[in-house]
Write a structure and sequence with these properties.
Number of strands: 41
Mean pLDDT: 95
Shape: elongated
Number of domains: 2
Helix content: 10-25%
Low-confidence stretches: none
CATH architecture of the largest domain: Alpha-Beta Complex
Strand order of the largest sheet: 12-15-18-21-24-27-30-33-36-39-41
CATH class of the largest domain: Alpha Beta
Radius of gyration: 31 Å
Distance between the termini: 88 Å
Number of helices: 11
Length: 465
C-alpha cells in the first residue's frame, strides 16, 4: 500500500488569517487542494492530513474523504508524523510519502518517478531534491562519491565553504519504507536547540543503522516553492498563473493577451477556444473547443459548449450548450441550463431555469425558476415573478411561444405550445396551446389630468424652452 502524510498543522501567522496556512488559496484553490490533486493524479489515495491550528477548517474542506491526525502541539515535523502513527500501522507494507502542506507545486510525474526510483534503489528512505539558483536557507544535499546515494542533509549553518556552494537542496519531501519509518519514529529525540522532533533526524538514524538512503533529483525546481506571508503568496499566484496559461497554450487554446486572465488549475479548455482579457475562470469549469470567453467574464464551476460566445458574463454553477451567444452584461446563477443555439442578450439574469434550444432571451429580462421550451422569444422587459415572499414557484413555457414586451408571468403558471402574451400583460392563469393571453385594462384618456398633475414639473421645464 502506498501512503501519503501531508503535514498541514501550521498556522502561518504572517498570513494574518484565521485559517491554517495549508488552506491559503492560489488561483482560488487551497494549497492543500493542489497537493492532493497531484497525489490523486499519481495514484495515491491512502492519504492522511496532519492538522493543528484551526483543524476544523481542514476537516470541513476534506469532507471526510481522507483521514486526519491532530497535532495538539507544534513540536516539529517529526512530531507531526508521530501523530499519524496509527494511520501508518494500518498499512505498514509498502511506502509512505511525507510532504509539507505549504508547497503547492509538486507534480504527479515527480511523485511517480521518485517512487519508482525509491523502489529500484532498495533504500529505506529517498529524499526528493531540487537544484535552485539560490540555495540560501535550504539544507544542502551531500551525496556519496559516486553521486548515487545520500550521505547527509547539511543545514546551511553547518556547511563547509565547499558544501555551501552546492545548489541541490532538500525539498522537504521524502519517500520512506513504511515499516522502517514506523520503527524509527520512537527513536527521534528533542536533543536540539529548538527542542523539537525533526523528520530529517529519521534519515540520519537510518543511515547510522546501515540502511540505504537515496536522493531523487526532480526536474522542476518549483516543487520547493512556498510562502510565509501575503507577499510570498502573490509570487506563488504569479508563478501558478503563468504555468496554467502555458499549459493551455500548449494544448491549443488561444490567448491573445494574458493581462487580467486567471484560470483555475482544475479548468478544462478545448483546443481552439479563445480566452479574452479580464477573464476569470475558477473552480472546475469545462469549456468546449472553439468557444470564445470574454472579455470581462467570470465563470465559476460552469460548463460551456463548443463554439459558444460569452461576453461580459458572470456565471456560477451553470451550463451553456453549444453555439450559444451570451451577453453582454448577463448573470447566470446556479442551476441555470442554456441549451444549444440559444441567445441571451444584454442585461439579463437567469436563475435555476432551463432555456431550450434556439430560445432568445434578448434584453432586460429576468427568468427565475422556469422551464422554457425550444424556439421561445422573450420580448424586452418581460420577466417571471417566481417569489411571493413566502415560497418560490415555477413557470412552464412551451415550445415556440412568444412573450410580449413587459410581460409579467406570475408563477406558478403554464404557457402552452406556440402561445402568445400581449405586451404589458400580467399573466396569472395558464394559457392554452396556440392562444393569446391578454391581462391589461382597456386604455382610457382623461383630458386635462396631466396638466394639473404635472404643474410643478411643467413650471420647472420653462427654463429649457
Amino acid at each position: 500500500m502506498t501512503n501519503a502524510v501531508i503535514l498541514a498543522g501550521g498556522q502561518g501567522k504572517r498570513m494574518k488569517s484565521d485559517k491554517p496556512k495549508a488552506l491559503t488559496e492560489i488561483l482560488g484553490k487551497p494549497i492543500l487542494g493542489w497537493i492532493i490533486s497531484s497525489f490523486e493524479a499519481a495514484g495515491i489515495e491512502n492519504i492522511c492530513v496532519v492538522t493543528g491550528f484551526a483543524k476544523e477548517y481542514i476537516e470541513e474542506y476534506l469532507g471526510g474523504k481522507y483521514k486526519t491526525a491532530y497535532q495538539s502541539e507544534r513540536l516539529g515535523t517529526g512530531h507531526a508524523v508521530m501523530t499519524a502513527e496509527s494511520f501508518l500501522k494500518e498499512s505498514p507494507d509498502g511506502e509512505t510519502l511525507i510532504f509539507n502542506g505549504d508547497a503547492p507545486f509538486i507534480d504527479c510525474e515527480t511523485i511517480k518517478q521518485s517512487l519508482e526510483f525509491h523502489r529500484k534503489s532498495g533504500s529505506a528512505v529517498t529524499v526528493i531534491t531540487a537544484e535552485v539558483d539560490d540555495p540560501t536557507g535550504y539544507g544542502r544535499i551531500i551525496r556519496t562519491a559516486d553521486g548515487k546515494s545520500l550521505l547527509a542533509i547539511r543545514e546551511q549553518k553547518d556547511c563547509s565553504p565547499e558544501e555551501a556552494l552546492k545548489r541541490e537542496i532538500n525539498s522537504g519531501c521524502f519517500w520512506f519504507d513504511t515499516k522502517s519509518l514506523i520503527e524509527t519514529l520512537p527513536k527521534l529525540t528533542q536533543n536540539n536547540a529548538q527542542g523539537e522532533y525533526y523528520i530529517t533526524d529519521a534519515i540520519e538514524i537510518l543511515l547510522a543503522e546501515g540502511k540505504g538512503a537515496g536522493a531523487f533529483a526532480a526536474e522542476d525546481s518549483d516543487i520547493v516553492l512556498s510562502a510565509n506571508d501575503r507577499k510570498g503568496m502573490l509570487l506563488l499566484n504569479d508563478v501558478a498563473r503563468k504555468r496554467v496559461l502555458e499549459k493551455h497554450l500548449e494544448n491549443g487554446v488561444e490567448i491573445i493577451c494574458s493581462e487580467g486572465i486567471v484560470i483555475s488549475p482544475d479548468a478544462v479548455i478545448g483546443a481552439g477556444a479563445k480566452i479574452l482579457p479580464n477573464t476569470i475562470i475558477s473552480g472546475r469549469c469545462v469549456i468546449g473547443a472553439g468557444a470564445v470567453i470574454g472579455p470581462n467574464t467570470q465563470l465559476n464551476d460552469t460548463k460551456v459548449g463548443e463554439r459558444s460566445r460569452l461576453n461580459n458574463v458572470m456565471a456560477t454553477e451553470a451550463e451553456v450548450g453549444a453555439d450559444c451567444n451570451i451577453g453582454p452584461f448577463v448573470q447566470l446563477r446556479p442551476n441555470t441550463v442554456i441549451k444549444d443555439f440559444a441567445h441571451v442578450g444584454d442585461f439579463v439574469e437567469i436563475k435555476n431555469s432551463t432555456i431550450g434550444e434556439g430560445t432568445s432571451v434578448s434584453h432586460f429580462n429576468y427568468v427565475g425558476d422556469s422551464d422554457v421550451g425550444k424556439n421561445v422569444n422573450f420580448g424586452c422587459g418581460s420577466l417571471t415573478a417566481n417569489y411571493d415572499g413566502t415560497v418560490k414557484s415555477r413557470c412552464e413555457i412551451g415550445d415556440d411561444s412568444f412573450i410580449g414586451c413587459n410581460t409579467n408571468l406570475v408563477a406558478p403558471v403554464k404557457l402552452g405550445r406556440a402561445s402568445y402574451t400581449a405586451a404589458g400583460s400580467t399573466i396569472t392563469k395558464d394559457i392554452p396551446d396556440g392562444a393569446l393571453g391578454i391581462a391589461r385594462s382597456r386604455q382610457e384618456n382623461k383630458e386635462g389630468f396631466a396638466e394639473k398633475k404635472l404643474s410643478r414639473h411643467l413650471e420647472k421645464g420653462k427654463k429649457f424652452r
